[in-house]
Specification:
InterPro entries: Aspartic_peptidase_A1, PEPTIDASE_A1, Peptidase_aspartic_dom_sf, TAXi_C, TAXi_N, Xylanase_inhibitor_I-like. By secondary structure, the protein is mainly beta. The chain has 2 domains: 211 residues, Acid Proteases (Cathepsin D, subunit A, domain 1, Beta Barrel), CATH 2.40.70; 192 residues, Cathepsin D, subunit A, domain 1, CATH 2.40.70.10. It contains 6 helices and 33 strands. The two termini are 42 Å apart. Bound molecules: 2-acetamido-2-deoxy-beta-D-glucopyranose (4 copies).
Length: 425
């Protein structure tokens, strides 16, 4: 039933947002977006063009967010902005929850600060670069991209220069779904966050290749794990009965230096109230672990580090576990520290976190374990955050409901900042 409903929605979506047919011969196989890391907020910010005339807009990337929302109250100038009428197919696709002055109400959220505000369903032109997976190519346009207009107030807490958030979650009008429907490509996308605040990472909408200089195609060596649906929304506000748009994976155990850490496994699965489990997030700068998991993992890490003569020093907020860098060697995969493995569907499938993704340099002589304590009753037990995703390519396949991960690209002598942004249009 769900899939029938989905097919219906997808065809409606295609009908309502189909692209300009001015160039009917050109159908992109994938699109590309640049992603910068904001140095002061550690948010990941992407840029594309919107409105008529087109202007570049900066929005914070929210991997599990439901849709694009933009501040329409301040500085929004466009001759093509339209607000679909109440009861329209666009409003039902968007999950509108009311009607006011014949425009559809919707509740956009700032998932960084967990604040929301009243919004309206809207449509406008969006344009961005297509790609062959190697370079940006011809610019393509979706004339009636569905998004939410939000009040200026909910921008608070976002990086400077940002006008909203872009939701890539599992939702009818999520960015991946709208672009896939507009150009009839597969509902797959991939995120590769740069660890540098001065060199851009990339999001590919559509299938690979995903090529990084000097010619490494990160799409060919992915490890796959099933995505789980959390039946209860994890958004700050949501209509009753709505499942979460966020991406959950099944971590079954955690190993430090190859040794299994004793954990309360109940916390690792999602219960009927939608509590527990592991999700991937780009709005959390660092991985957040439920208190008992945090204590167990950090204790194991401290013990393994001590066995290597690594000296613990006082914590530096927000981190509790820090070390003197004097006894820590360096490797191609970052600081030489114990490896943390997230074991997935079976013992042979695990996501390894090496020094480059586990240790944060807080000063010239102190490295901290880049995990934070999420307290004892968080909604989600493990939130894999941005720092742990950097320089790893993560592909989400919505059609087969699985996640592919590359492991650190540093091991393949490249990084997420190595996409060649020179256009070949
Ligand atoms: C397309 O890519 C080129 C080269 O990176 C860039 O200068 C341009 O702004 C991009 N256009 C859009 C619409 O994003
Ligand atoms: C494990 O976690 C569950 C869920 O929070 C809790 O109800 C249970 O008491 C915990 N078990 C132990 C042994 O701590
Ligand atoms: C740690 O330090 C002790 C005492 O200095 C030394 O005996 C031992 O070999 C060192 N271990 C490692 C793994 O470096
Ligand atoms: C990036 O792509 C352009 C266009 O294909 C090419 O001319 C250039 O050599 C590439 N850059 C590198 C460093 O390979």
């Amino acid at each position: 039933m769900i899939s029938l409903q989905y097919i219906l929605f997808t065809s409606l979506l295609l009908f309502f947002i189909s692209p300009c047919l001015a160039q009917p011969s050109f159908r992109p196989r994938a699109l590309v977006l640049p992603v910068s890391k904001d140095a002061s907020t550690l948010q990941y910010v992407t840029t594309f063009n919107q409105r008529t005339p087109l202007v570049p807009i900066n929005v914070v990337v929210d991997l599990g967010g439901r849709y694009l929302w933009v501040d329409c109250d301040r500085g929004y100038v466009s001759s093509t902005l339209r607000r679909p009428r109440c009861g329209s197919a666009e409003c039902s696709l968007a999950g509108a929850n009311g009607c006011g002055g014949n425009v559809c109400s919707i509740g956009p959220d700032n998932t960084v600060t967990n604040s929301g505000g009243p919004g309206e369903v809207a449509q406008d032109v969006v344009s961005l670069n297509s790609t062959d997976g190697r370079n940006p190519g011809r610019v393509v346009t979706v004339p009636r991209f569905i998004f939410a207009c939000a009040p200026t107030s909910i921008l608070q807490g976002l990086a400077s220069g940002v006008v909203g958030m872009a939701g890539f979650g599992r939702y009818n009008i999520g960015l991946p779904q709208q672009f896939a429907a507009a150009f009839s490509f597969r509902r797959k996308f991939a995120v590769c966050l740069s660890s540098s605040t001065s060199a851009r990472g990339v999001i590919f909408l559509g299938d690979g290749p995903y090529v990084f200089l000097p010619g490494v195609d990160a799409s060919v060596s992915l490890t796959f794990t099933p995505l789980f649906i959390n039946p209860i929304s994890t958004a700050p506000s949501f209509p009753l009965g709505e499942p979460s748009a966020e991406y959950f994976i099944g971590v079954k155990s955690i190993k430090v230096n190859g040794k299994r850490v004793p954990l309360n496994t109940t916390l690792l699965s999602i219960n009927r109230e939608g509590v527990g489990g592991t999700k991937i997030s780009t709005v959390n700068p660092y991985t957040v672990l439920e208190d008992s998991i945090f204590k167990a993992v950090t204790e194991a890490f401290i013990n393994e580090a001590a066995a290597r003569n690594i000296t613990r020093v006082a914590g530096v907020a927000p981190f509790e576990v820090c070390f003197s860098s004097s006894n820590i060697g360096s490797t191609r995969l970052g600081a030489a520290v114990p490896t943390i493995d997230l074991v997935l569907q079976n013992e042979d499938v695990f996501w390894s976190i090496f020094g480059a993704n586990s240790m944060v340099e807080v000063s010239s002589d102190v490295l901290c374990l880049g995990f934070v304590n999420g307290g004892s009753n968080p909604q989600t037990s493990i939130v894999l955050g941005g720092y742990q995703l950097e320089d790893n390519l993560v592909q989400l396949d919505l059609a087969t409901s699985r996640l592919g991960f590359s492991s650190t690209l540093l091991g393949r002598q490249t990084t997420c900042a190595n996409f060649n942004f020179t256009s070949i249009a």
